[in-house]
Amino acid sequence: MARRLHREHHHIGNTGWLRAAVLGANDGVLSTASLVLGVATATHAHGSILIAGVSGLVAGALSMAAGEYVSVSSQADVEKADLAVERRELATDKEAELKELTGIYISRGLTRELAAQVAQQLSAKDALAAHARDELGITEETTARPLQAAIASAASFSAGAIVPIAAAMLSPIDAVVAIVYIISLVALAGLGALGAWAGGAPLWPATVRVTFWGIVAMAVSAGIGMLFHVQV
Ligand SMILES: [Zn+2]
What we know:
By secondary structure, the chain is mainly α. The protein has one domain (15-226). The protein has seven helices and no strands. Helix 1 (12-43) packs parallel to helix 5 (146-169) and helix 2 (46-92) runs antiparallel to helix 4. Zinc ion binds at residues 86, 89, 97, 100, 131, 135.
């Protein structure tokens, strides 16, 4: 258990995964609610709505996961390549690497003597870790984990997508559009506020922004559904 190093509260610690989860859930709510509203206004049938909602959830979750896996994998590849270069340089020219690390600490404000001492001691403990952290910005916490990222984004998308689907399935067919609309907007506003809180940003601007675009996206989808309205 990492010893608590700070008295004050920093947002940077929980920004990463929470903000990604909020964005994923936001996508899930908005894209699935739009789909459900489009089909609900077009068909007025719970069966079609459920099929459309679940297909939207599965398709959205898989494409989010695939996209995240690919993008984080390429980041992981870059990190691995950089670490291989570092490892090689440490093996072939230890002196130059030590000088480089000392230079980094001097540029951060240490005196030459203290910087050399710090570089020496950190290199003695774990030279690759010191270079990875202070030269490349790669740490245990920030290192790219493609599978974890893919699963997290699929899960957050699915968690968001379930909201409009459940709202549609639990509503009488004539009230589906209104209830899905309202429930989805409340969910989007909540996610907007949570995302702002996680990033330490003011709550209202983010909440209003997400809600506004949610209103627009769902209205357009419902409108298109009305254009295709079919008598079943
Ligand atoms: Zn280096």
